[in-house]
Amino acid sequence: MADRSDLHPFPNGWYVFALSSELPKGKVLARAFMGQDVTVFRTQSGQAHAVESYCPHLGAHFGHGGTVVGETLQCPFHGFRFNGKGACVRTGYDTPAPPKAKLRTWHLREQNGFLLIYHHVNGEAPDWQVPSVDEQDWTPLIYKSFVLNDHPQETTENSVDVGHFSYVHNYQRPRETRAFEAKGHALSTGYAVLRSLNFLGFSLRRYDLFFDIQIFGLGYSIVNIRLPLFKVVARLWVLPTSIDENRIILRLALRMKKWPTVLGDLASRLMGRYIFYNFVKDASQDFPIWENKRFLRRPALAQGDGPIGKYRQWAKQFYSPTECDAGKSNTELIADTMEM
User: Fold this and answer.
1) Which among 312, 285, 310 has a CA at the least distance from the CA of 296?
2) Which of 120, 239, 275, 291 has the greatest number of beta carbons closer than 10 A?
3) pLDDT: which is higher, 301 or 323
């Protein structure tokens, strides 16, 4: 198994817990998130909330029989009800709620079809947000998810690892189109490559493919894609979320800008699925490498690798001093990383 002992498994930041479509009104959804059991529920008014999965009364799990009653989450064991702030508002016997009957809550934000939860190792409130993007004239969201033995910092680093474009994905002539820029919790860069158009196993021609990359923390990346040959503009999301100390769930999602033609909606959806199929295929080429590589504190970087050192310098902000004190110092890790 890959060795990532130098990386704390749960860096701070915003991470996708689920797609909005997975949580209709009245639904309860429980999952492992950052090494903990977290339950998300949507009230009858449409509000989504994230709370711990175990009832503070006698420990029942909300994900196994918990229900939504109005604006509250009801425990399946004794009928205790909790609001979105974690407060017990009613016992199963209509008696006063015990003072200690309170659930831990997480900051949850819903946008662009995703339910995002903010994780901080010390429980601090978010001091930054992931910006929303325009959805008008874009196709519906399509997505696919994978469970991998990996870490969010490793998968996100892939976006700036220019050197692997040719050797893993067979992209040709990779070149920078937008200089690496880090501002606070956000990072941006851009590249262009030549790629072969394949149909039924035959390589038909090469075309220019442009990536404009925006990264917000280690769990939320947007890759705006342009294929001038087909007049295609697409938006790809790359969304790694830690499940436990060794595994992540990697979600890939895509919307395509609709073509302004009579059949534009249908044609755009079909082209979007074709593009998404190819990018899922490309991403899967990285999986065996990610799952078996070792994270090196002092990599022997070379010219042509891309701004990996700068990326790691930026990434260290998502690890708290508590994690460094525990012997998993990303500050030390980054300081030893050479920049090219």
Assistant:
1) 312
2) 239
3) 301
Same domain flag for 180 and 264: yes
**Which residue(s) pair with 82 in the sheet?**
73, 88
Of 2, 46, 39, whose CA–CA distance to 24 is shortest?
46
162 and 302 co-located in one domain: yes
**pLDDT tens track for 41-74:** 999 999 999 999 999 999 999 999 999 999 999 9
82-91 per-position pLDDT tens digit: 999 999 999 9
User: Distance (Å, rounded) from C-alpha 133 to C-alpha 112?
Assistant: 7
User: Are 196 and 302 found together in one domain?
Assistant: yes
Residue in 143, 142, 139 with CA at minimum distance from that of residue 259 = 139
- Boundary residue ending a domain (67, 87, 119): 119
Q: Give me the pLDDT at residue 199, please.
A: 55
Residue 4 confidence (pLDDT)? 78
Nearest to 11 by CA among 237, 188, 248: 248
Domain holding 107, by residue range, is 13-119
Entry pTM: 0.92
Query: Is 334 inside a domain boundary?
Result: no
Q: Is residue 66 part of a domain?
A: yes
DSSP lists the bridge partners of residue 239 as: 251
Using the structure block, give the residue that is written with the tokens 């990434």.
315
CA separation for the pair 166, 163 (Å, rounded) = 7
pLDDT score of 335: 40
DSSP code of residue 71: T
Q: What angle do CA 151, 152, 155 make, to 5 degrees?
A: 90
